[in-house]
Amino acid sequence: MVWPVRHLAWLLMTLAALDVKHHWLPDRLTVLLALSGLAAGLFSLEPGLPDRLIGGLAGFASLSVIAAVYRRIRKRDGLGAGDPKMLGAIGCWLGWQALPMVILGASLVGILVAISWRWRGQSVSADSMLPLGSLMAVAAFPLWLFQTGSGGALY
Q1: Alpha-carbon span 122 to 7, nearest angstrom
Q2: Rounded CA gap, 110 and 106, in Å?
Q3: At what angle do helices 132-148 and 99-119 cross, to 10 degrees?
């Protein structure tokens, strides 16, 4: 079944590009990502629908709590409002078990981005804005391919 691979790839690429360019993850696209992930679960694709539902809720809730705690402690926003929605939508595709790997992968890619900025002479500080949604998209797609055994069959 090829449609899930293409659909996930195009949505993640679109969201990643918007996040890099505008720091914006539109609700319409993240909702479409979430709903299509749940729909894929209806076709008996792994992970099962219960794991996808838990993944959607856990992804959204975990980053929402982190954002709220950060805002309370630092008195400023540290995450955009779209980042929890994006992780929730990714959870609807990969299931709750993969969420820690998505965050770990996004963190590692983010570190590489920050290092590349420094090498190019750009300033990197606590106020530097990294597009977390893009970083999660970069981490999520290969995880989904590995998880499903799709092996990159995008045609």
Answers
A1: 35
A2: 6
A3: 130
Task: Give burial (CB, 10 Å; 0-12/13-18/19+) of 102.
Answer: buried
pLDDT in single tens digits along all 155 residues of the chain: 567 788 899 999 999 999 999 999 999 999 999 999 999 999 877 899 999 999 999 999 999 999 999 999 999 999 999 999 999 999 999 999 999 999 999 999 999 999 999 999 999 998 899 999 999 999 999 999 998 886 544 43
Q: What is the DSSP string of the chain?
A: --HHHHHHHHHHHHHHHHHHHHS---HHHHHHHHHHHHHHHHTTPSSPHHHHHHHHHHHHHHHHHHHHHHHHHHSS--S-THHHHHHHHHHHHH-GGGHHHHHHHHHHHHHHHHHHHHHTT----TT----HHHHHHHHHHHHHHHHHT-TT---
- Structure tokens, 104: 């770990």
Report whether the peptide linkage leading into residue 47 is cis, meaning its omega lies within 30 degrees of zero: yes
